[in-house]
Specification:
This protein is mainly alpha-helical. It has helices at 2-21, 47-80, 90-95, 97-121, 124-150, 152-169, 175-187, 249-253, 261-271, 273-310, and strands spanning 27-28, 34-35. A two-stranded antiparallel ribbon has the order 1-2. Helix 2 (47-80) packs antiparallel against helix 4 (97-121), helix 5 crosses helix 6 and helix 5 (124-150) packs antiparallel against helix 10 (273-310).
Length: 311
C-alpha cells in the first residue's frame, strides 16, 4: 500500500514538473528539443526594407510605363503619317528610337513590376525573378566594360567600322534618328563618325557624289559652323554643307566641322573622367543596393514562413 502511494505521488510530481516546463517562458517540443517562443506580433520582415523596395520599384515602374507610352505614340504617329519601318536586322531596331523606347520601357516595366508587387505582396518568386534580372543586367554591364578594357582595338574597330557605316547609311531612314544625329553633331561640334570625319558622309546615298540628289558631295547642315547662319543663331542655313566633299581641306574648315564624333565624344569623356566614373559607380551602387534589398527581403519572408510553421 505504501509503495503504491509512493509511485502515485512521484507521478503527480512528474506531471506538475512537465506543466512548469511548458509555460510561456520556453519549453520542449514533442521531439524533446527546446523551442523558442516569440511575441504574437513579432515579424522577421523589416518595414524599411519592404517599403524601400516598393517605392524604388514603383518609380521605375512608372518610368517604364512612360517610355512605353511615348514609344507607342511615336510608332502610331509614324504609321498614320505613312512612314515605313525597316526592321531587317538589330541595327534597324536600335536606330528606330520609337521601337527602342517600347522595348526598353517594356523591360523596365516588367522587371520593376515584379519587384514592386513582390515586395508589396511578399511574394518570393517575383522577388527572385527581379533580383535575377538585375544581376544579369549588372553582369552584362560589367562584361561590356571588361571587353572595352581588355580588347579596346576590336571595340574601336566595331564602333568605327560596322557601327559607323550603319549610322551613316541609316541617317534618312528615320526622322527621329536623323534628329538625334544632328543633335550629337551640333553639341559635340563634329561631323561624321570615325577618323574620316566629314568624309564619312560619302557612304550615304543622298550625300554621295554619284547621287542624283541636290545634296550630293555634301554633308548635313548640323555639321556647319555657327558662322554660316547669316549672323543670326536662330536661323539655320541648310545649304551650308553642299559640295564640301569636293573642296580643299582649308576651305572645308571654314564652313563645317571636320572631326569625327567618336573622337570628340572620347575627348569629352576623358576631360570629364571623374564625373563619368562617378556616375558609373553610382549606377552600379544603386543596382547592387537594390539586389541586396531584394535578397534580404527574400530571406526575411522565408524566416517568417518558417516561424509560422513552427508555431
Amino acid at each position: 500500500m505504501a509503495r503504491h502511494d509512493y509511485e502515485h505521488g512521484r507521478g503527480r510530481q512528474a506531471q506538475s514538473g512537465g506543466g512548469r516546463g511548458g509555460d510561456g517562458r520556453g519549453g520542449r517540443s514533442r521531439s524533446g528539443r527546446l523551442r523558442r517562443r516569440f511575441p504574437s506580433d513579432f515579424s522577421y520582415i523589416s518595414g524599411w526594407v519592404k517599403w524601400a523596395m516598393f517605392c524604388c520599384n514603383f518609380l521605375f515602374w512608372m518610368l517604364g510605363l512612360l517610355l512605353v507610352g511615348v514609344g507607342v505614340y511615336a510608332v502610331l504617329d509614324k504609321w498614320s503619317s505613312g512612314e515605313g519601318f525597316k526592321l531587317e536586322n538589330v541595327f534597324d531596331v536600335i536606330f528606330n528610337l520609337a521601337f527602342l523606347m517600347v522595348i526598353v520601357g517594356g523591360v523596365v516595366f516588367v522587371v520593376s513590376f515584379c519587384g514592386c508587387i513582390g515586395a508589396l505582396r511578399e511574394n518570393v518568386c517575383l522577388l527572385q525573378f527581379f533580383s535575377l534580372c538585375l544581376l544579369l543586367f549588372f553582369l552584362a554591364e560589367m562584361g561590356l566594360g571588361a571587353v572595352s578594357l581588355l580588347i579596346p582595338d576590336k571595340m574601336s574597330y566595331f564602333l568605327e567600322k560596322n557601327l559607323s557605316e550603319e549610322l551613316i547609311q541609316s541617317y534618312r531612314d528615320d526622322l527621329d534618328f536623323q534628329n538625334l544625329i544632328d543633335l550629337v553633331q551640333q553639341e559635340f561640334e563634329c561631323c561624321g563618325i570615325n577618323n574620316q570625319g566629314y568624309k564619312n558622309w560619302a557612304d550615304n546615298e543622298y550625300f554621295n557624289c554619284k547621287s542624283p540628289s541636290v545634296e550630293k558631295c555634301g554633308v548635313p547642315f548640323s555639321c556647319c559652323l555657327p558662322s554660316n547662319n547669316a549672323g543670326d543663331p536662330g536661323l539655320v542655313n541648310i545649304m551650308c554643307g553642299f559640295d564640301v566633299q569636293e573642296q580643299s581641306l582649308s576651305e572645308v574648315r571654314e564652313r563645317i566641322y571636320t572631326e569625327g564624333c567618336l573622337k570628340s565624344i572620347r575627348m569629352y569623356v576623358e576631360s570629364n573622367l571623374y564625373w563619368v566614373g562617378g556616375i558609373a559607380l553610382g549606377v552600379a551602387f544603386v543596382q547592387l543596393l537594390v539586389i541586396w534589398l531584394a535578397r534580404t527581403l527574400e530571406r526575411q519572408i522565408e524566416n517568417q514562413r518558417a516561424l509560422w510553421q513552427t508555431n
